[in-house]
Every structure is written in structure tokens, then in C-alpha cells.
Specification:
This protein is an all-alpha fold and 307 residues long. It contains 14 helices and no strands.
Length: 307
């Protein structure tokens, strides 16, 4: 019987190579959707026809999801390997399917690829990508390890996944130029709202977070108060977005966001009654309404392109 350890740093595993399927699992394709959607919102909000800039739009989508987001997942899983050994031991690194330091090496390689691709897409795209990469490493890696505090960690994720991805999408379509103030404001507001979305993901890991000293909001505040904070973070920026759309004369899009917000509020009532039981439910059914509102807002500002 083998006595080889499943510790990812065990000497017996250090020379092994990970299977491609394990690498793909480490990069978590399912997590690529949020930044790719935000990037698409940036593309739409720019007002530049996609057919006129198809290659750069495609390159930017790859940058947002399969590169930068995937890199952040590899980085996070590497520095979370001991936490995951408690919460989700079947993950590639704690299970030994990504052996030795391969998780860290993959994060390094994907970081380099992300910056190389970004450098071909213009100054503001590169600047946004550098910021996103730095936040990803600061979120997971010591000495900052922002995820150790739910306030800072979730803010970093929301800004990276939504705000920076949106700004990058608009900048790509604008030839690398800085997007308009309206685009920047919307991107920042929806990034702030994503703080609450990230909190929803923390409810499933309360046990491991508490045991390993990660002060997620459910650990810091308790599930009930953390649920209230998550809902407030999600709803408040959308109220501001609605007010802005009305002030810009975009009544139809404002009405769409209102209806989508009402749907979220109905779901939030159920979530607040039993946060731990319903966090993933709200994430699965309420968050899509949030991101549909992002796209409606993106269409609203595309008419102001060039102003």
C-alpha cells in the first residue's frame, strides 16, 4: 500500500506533472464568466461596433477570462491549499492532482501571458491588466493577503472582476484610450455591488475560514449580519445607477434596472431568513438579474459615445 502523502509540497510528488484535466480544473472556466460579461459590457458601452474591431474584442475576452481570471484562480488555490484541505479537499492542489509547486508555476506563467497579451491592446488596457494582476496576487498571497479580511478582499475582487474588466472592454474598443466618465462611473458602481456577490460565496466556507484565520464577513459579523451587508452592497449601487440613468434621460434602461432590482429584493427576503442555506441559491438566481442590469446600463450609455 502506498504511503505517499497528498501534501502538494511532498517530495514524492514534486517531480510529477499535472494532467491537463487537473490544470483546467485549477483554472476554473466557470469563474471566467463574470469578468468576460463585464468586459462585454465595456465593449457595448463604448459605442464602437464590434464588427469594426472584432479581433481586439476577441483578444480582450480571452484576456479577461482565460488569462487574468484563470491566473487569479490558480494563485488563489495555491495560497488557499491548506484552507481547501478542510473545506474542499477534492480540489486539484490539496488532492495532489496538481503536485509539487505546479500550482504556483501555473499562476506565474498565466500572469506573464496576461501581461503580454495586454501589452498588444493599448496603454489603458495594459494599465488595467497590471492593476488586475497586482490585485489578484495581493488578494491571495502574503504579506497582504487581502482575502484574510472580508472587507478588503471582497472589494479587491469586485473591482477586478467587474470594474477593471468593464473599463478594459471599453478601452479595447476605443483603441486603448481612456473611456468616458459615464462608463467609468458605471463600472465602479457595479464593481462596488460585486462586493456583496463575493460575500455570498463566503457562506459555504465558514468552517474552514474560521479554523484558518480568514475573517470573511460571515466569520467577522456572523451569518445574519453578513447577509444584510451583502444585500446592501448589491442593492445600493443599483439605486444610484437608476438615478443616473434617469438623469441622463435613459428611461427605458432605468425601468429595466428597476424591475431587475425588484426581482433581486424579493429573493433577498428569502436569503435573509436563512443565509447559510440560501446563499448559493441567491447567487445562482439573483446574481443573473444583477448582471443583466449591467448590460442594460451599458446599452444606455453607448448612445453617448464620443461625448
Amino acid at each position: 500500500m502506498s504511503t505517499e502523502s497528498n501534501d502538494p509540497l511532498a517530495p514524492g510528488l514534486a517531480a510529477a506533472y499535472p494532467a491537463p484535466s487537473a490544470v483546467l480544473e485549477l483554472l476554473k472556466p466557470i469563474t471566467w464568466f463574470p469578468p468576460m460579461w463585464a468586459f462585454a459590457c465595456g465593449v457595448v458601452s463604448s459605442g464602437v461596433p464590434v464588427v469594426a474591431n472584432g479581433y481586439t474584442a476577441l483578444a480582450g475576452m480571452i484576456l479577461a477570462g482565460p488569462l487574468v481570471c484563470a491566473m487569479s484562480q490558480a494563485c488563489n488555490d495555491w495560497y488557499d491549499r491548506h484552507v481547501d484541505a478542510i473545506n474542499e479537499p477534492q480540489r486539484p492542489i490539496p488532492s495532489g492532482r496538481i503536485p509539487g509547486r505546479w500550482g504556483l508555476y501555473i499562476a506565474f506563467v498565466w500572469t506573464a501571458l496576461s501581461l503580454l497579451v495586454a501589452a498588444t491592446l493599448g496603454t489603458w488596457v495594459l494599465a488595467a491588466t497590471v492593476a488586475g494582476v497586482l490585485l489578484a496576487w495581493a488578494y491571495s498571497a502574503p504579506p497582504l493577503r487581502l482575502k484574510a479580511n472580508g472587507w478588503w478582499g471582497n472589494a479587491a475582487c469586485g473591482f477586478s472582476y467587474e470594474s477593471l474588466a468593464w473599463i478594459t472592454g471599453a478601452a479595447v474598443m476605443l483603441g486603448g484610450a481612456l473611456p468616458s466618465a459615464r462608463i467609468l462611473v458605471l463600472a465602479l458602481l457595479y464593481g462596488a455591488g460585486a462586493h456583496g456577490i463575493m460575500t455570498l460565496n463566503d457562506f459555504k466556507a465558514i468552517k474552514g475560514d474560521r479554523e484558518t484565520g480568514i475573517n470573511s464577513l460571515p466569520v467577522l459579523l456572523g451569518p445574519d449580519r453578513a447577509a444584510q451587508v451583502a444585500c446592501a452592497f448589491m442593492a445600493a449601487p443599483q439605486v444610484v445607477v437608476i438615478a443616473l440613468l434617469l438623469s441622463w434621460g435613459r428611461l427605458i434602461e432605468a425601468g429595466i434596472v428597476v424591475l431587475l432590482l425588484i426581482g433581486q429584493l424579493v429573493m433577498m427576503r428569502r436569503f435573509l431568513r436563512a443565509p447559510v442555506a440560501h446563499a448559493l441559491w441567491l447567487s445562482g438566481f439573483g446574481v443573473p438579474l444583477y448582471v443583466f442590469g449591467m448590460m442594460a446600463s451599458a446599452f444606455a450609455v453607448r448612445v453617448f459615445a464620443g461625448t
